[in-house]
Specification:
The structure is a homodimer of 609-residue chains. The first copy, chain A, has 609 residues and is an alpha+beta fold. Chain A is built from 18 helices and 25 strands. In chain A, the strands form five sheets. An eight-stranded mixed sheet of chain A has the order 5-12-11-10-9-6-7-8, with helices on both faces. In chain A, strands 18-19-20-21-22-23-24-25 form an eight-stranded antiparallel barrel. In chain A, helix 10 links the parallel strand 9 and strand 10. In chain A, helix 3 crosses helix 4. Chains A and B meet through helix 2, helix 5, helix 6, helix 8 and helix 9 of A and helix 2, helix 5, helix 6, helix 8 and helix 9 of B.
């Protein structure tokens, strides 16, 4: 029987000793070994299980220390009869089956209406191409550093410190680290009574809403915007005003005049990733001043500014204590551990602390201390540098892949960072259908419906993020997705066979292309100029903050224009049929499918044959 | 300069390598070492600091891996210029001083009114005699076991698992452990969709209040009772009904008929430690059924039942899904880590999950997993056995000390457990004054004012707990406290010199005491009978669940009655002047101070001289 109860599985990571121990404990607790019953001697058990006797001796020693078993001299080893001390008498319990369907619904006073969660499947890690923003691939997690910080926080002296802070508030060590190492990155100065720790951003938003929002309050939110905030504000009774977002962030206009509070995500607007410009920030603060509005700044993903130094947080520009600043440590680290924080004037912080205490006491102090060590040991800074590098690389890779395989698909304008692209597909594209079909191919993209409050959302939009997919899978994923989009919208696409304009022959191409300058739009909203030089070489350059140049060669063959860039388009050789329609040039691939449209900027030759 | 920046302190626990590393990181971050500047070679730095070169080499290697410094071949080691990548341009920030006084108070919509916290000082550990319930002396914390469980939860594979549960809900491993190992102790069966994890009990109470309470709801709470619950219910607008507590727990009477919800702490009533009897439990459930009332059961300290097996939780007796069960893992462990849970029907749990998600996402998953390991490795069971033993021992020690030094001071009736005694001092005692004076002597006791909602509280009551004081300090603490109480109330005490009744002389004592049976009340509410046998021996026994007996000797000398028990009263020899007043006997000590009153139960002799 013992052998059946204690089955040893050599394929497990778990040590023999630990396996035997756990099975014995389980057997004792569920009653397979009766209380007070005698256990086999260590020699006998070792024989039966086919393990070294010493292993069993150690297990027994351990169980004895823990009180599961008792050893009686000259008699043997017994299950401790007192093991169930403190348990109820099971005979007193009514072992009835409770009705499965609750009759308590009618008692609910404040039912929660939540926006549907993103359609990301729970087993997203099994997909080959997960482009899901906010999920993180395992390679990013600073395992070694977190473990070290966590261990530092769990030595006896530290445990004594933090366990006694319970109920008293935040860990002073973490406050100091946030004050000196985290918020200065955003230009914010604060004393420690102007900072409060929270269990992630969501709790911060909850507490701030509880304090400032009721049915008399009108709040401006971004549209499209963060659905969880809309839910929270509406739960608290707020009237919402939906403020559009343009290339410079949330609009500042007279719609805001009626508002008491503005909620905004200026770093990287959720979900468009647009960064609010400095002038828009100033305008927003000015408007808030004129209309006496409180601003809730959700400083989302402030670490991912790739193309330029980040703008200062609104809170750092605030001269009137009008901005409540909410943020968290990098979501990669915070995911699971959930350390967020609020910066505001001490009067607000003090009231928020009362609210936090009443509703939860304080965020778990072991985590506060572990994160404090993570910061104080310099791991956080190093981790941020690393994340910045990794995300920037992926972000560029995705942009390059989109530009190559889906050349007409982005129109959010020039974004500077963030970890996701807002993508506008061909106008006949059904985004929901695309999402389903893509998932069948192992590609996860994010639908955007949930970000829109007002019912109507653009059916042909979706999001692709870089936090969850390793760099080396991005290109293949986008290439497959592009093929799928092509299939789904093929019937609406222009074909070479029915293209408007004139298909150019070998001779005409040879006569007309040399010396031509073409201009097209990169997917990320900046123009690209291509010069086809008469000597068969070509050069290209893009504008924007991160302008690029490349060179390559071009030639004509079989009635097609062929080109090969050194770096761009992965240096691949590719040929296109060329149609000219007025000042527009259109390229079609070898299957006669439309690829890209360009403007002919300069050509000194007559295109008529 | 380096030597000044990097001061090595050999008295620290921190390794040399770690000290040098941290100082360098700090120097880099605060700009003592400018970005891009060259650092001394490892040889030179080692010389300057007087440490082995290898130490510095390892530090440099480490900093390079983390991105703080870069090594350029043939040139040296430099501070990485990109270290501030992702920081804002500090020139754009307005380095103004924000007004210190907030102007935001007028925007608060729901100001929190909280009952004052207990007067326990933050540095309570420095006091010699901390009798503060709910604070825990460091020796109790299962450091080794927690560290082990925590490490198990922070290996790569585990981190990958729990960090990806973010947003999806509770850790299935923890749910399973609670379902199979924790709630069965209380007689509760539940499937995993009937359990939800919370950040401690307070969050559980908050979420349940949010869901079930608004201004239309009347809630019965215990009086005296848990103040944080009153605050929470009132914050949510509830009308409160204050229900008295007797020796069997919260009263069940017609006052409850008007209530929609009953909040109760049946295991050990907060703050009186009274356990609700089985018949009261049945009556409460019956009342709830008749009046269609929802019960919130806060299963406080269910682990500390010392004198008998605990009663089953209300939830385990509930046949109608009428009980919402709230509890947490042992507060010793949960303090700081804060893992609590709710058991209710799946309809309620599902709604509570929505609420929790909206207000906080989920309790930190690293802690959920670490606690799951703490349970699955059997540490929790062993820890509970250990705690039970330690607290029981202290609880008995405190009772014995109170009985010896403050013989007339408890009247909560026979309690069965809990970790604190509710103590009623002499009726002229000013509890608040006692608390202050006691603190000056290093004794911390808990005032009870905060437990009473309705303004009036008994001035002469206080609480003494055993969770924070080691067993070997209890007697001395009570002895000192007794002296202080005696000083403070001396003027009201009966003195031998003005005692009513007749002082017995040597001769009368000798004639009358042999064969006398005396009866007195133990401080914990059970009678004690003492027989003075003619041969100079005596025997005593107490009633109650844990009745005790002891023997000793007695004699008469210098006009006083002397006695020495074998075990009771610490086996000390003590003499008393004896006054008889009708059927009452009063003892006075050698300073003529009143000690104790007893009933003379049997005496065959005439006491008149």
């Amino acid at each position: 029987m013992l052998k059946r109860l204690i089955h040893i599985d050599n394929s497990l990571d778990e040590s023999l000793q630990s396996q035997i121990r756990n099975k014995l404990v389980e057997g004792i607790l569920i009653g397979s070994f009766a209380l007070g019953s005698r256990l086999p001697s260590s020699r006998k058990l070792a024989e039966q299980l086919g393990v070294a006797r010493n292993t069993v001796v150690l297990v027994y020693q351990n169980l004895q220390d823990e009180g599961y078993i008792v050893s009686r001299e000259r008699s043997g080893i017994y299950v401790n009869e007192k093991i169930h001390q403190g348990w109820v008498n099971q005979n007193e319990v009514s072992h009835h089956y409770l009705p499965k369907v609750s009759d308590n619904q009618h008692r609910f006073k404040h039912a929660v209406q939540t926006t549907n969660q993103t359609a990301c499947p729970a087993d997203w890690q099994k997909y080959n191409f997960p482009f899901i923003d906010g999920k993180f691939d395992s390679s990013l997690y600073p395992v070694k550093e977190w473990r070290d910080a966590n261990q530092q926080a769990n030595v006896t002296r530290e445990i004594n410190q933090w366990s006694h802070l319970q109920g008293l508030g935040d860990d002073p060590m973490l406050l100091e680290q946030i004050r000196t190492k985290v918020i200065p990155r955003r230009g914010i100065q604060a004393s420690s009574n102007e900072i409060m720790i929270t269990v992630g951003t969501q709790q911060a938003l909850h507490l701030v809403s509880q304090l400032f929002v009721d049915a008399s309050v009108t709040v401006a939110v971004e549209e499209p915007g963060y659905p969880e905030v809309r839910d929270l504000l509406q739960y608290n009774g707020a009237k919402l005003v939906y403020q559009p977002v343009d290339d410079n962030g949330m609009l500042v206009d007279s719609q805001l005049d009626q508002c008491d509070i503005i909620y905004t995500t200026p770093s990287h607007q959720t979900p468009t990733s647009v960064t609010m410009s400095m002038s828009r920030r100033q305008a927003l603060l000015q408007k808030a001043k004129e209309e006496d509005i409180l601003i809730i700044e959700d400083d989302f993903e402030f670490e991912s500014n790739f193309l330029r130094q980040p703008h200062p947080a609104l809170r750092s520009l605030d001269t009137e204590n009008r901005v409540i600043y909410i943020s968290c440590l990098s979501k990669v680290l915070a995911s699971g551990i959930q350390i967020g924080f609020i910066v505001a004037d001490s009067g607000v912080i003090s009231e928020l602390k009362k609210l936090r205490k009443m509703t939860m006491r304080n965020p778990p102090l072991n985590n506060q201390r572990a994160v404090a060590y993570f910061l104080s040991l310099g791991y956080y800074d190093a981790f941020m540098l690393h994340l910045h590098k990794v995300f920037f690389e992926r972000w560029l890779t995705l942009r390059e892949a989109l530009n190559t395989y889906l050349p007409n698909c982005i129109d959010t304008g020039p974004i500077q960072g963030g970890t996701a692209y807002w993508i506008t597909g061909p106008k006949q594209l059904d985004g929901e259908n695309l999402r389903e079909k893509a998932a069948e191919l192992g590609i996860l993209i994010e639908p955007v419906k949930r970000y829109f409050a007002k019912g109507k959302h653009p059916e042909n939009c979706f999001r692709m993020g870089v936090t969850s997919i390793p760099n080396d899978r991005i290109r293949a994923g986008v290439s497959k997705l592009a093929e799928l989009i092509h299939q789904l919208t093929a019937e609406y696409e222009e074909k070479l066979t029915d293209a408007s304009g004139k298909l150019l022959s070998n001779e005409v191409l040879k006569k007309l292309l040399p010396g031509t300058r073409l201009e097209c739009q990169m997917v990320y909203g900046v123009p690209c100029t291509i010069d086809l030089l008469p000597d068969g070489s070509m050069s290209g350059h893009t504008s924007g903050i991160d302008s690029e140049t490349d060179t390559g060669r071009w030639w004509i063959e079989d009635g097609m224009y062929w080109r090969q860039w050194k770096l761009w388009s992965y240096g691949e050789v590719k040929g296109f049929y060329v149609v000219v329609d007025g000042s527009q040039m259109k390229w079609f691939d070898k299957n006669y499918c439309f690829v890209r449209q360009l403007d002919i900027k300069e050509h000194t030759k007559n295109l008529d044959p």
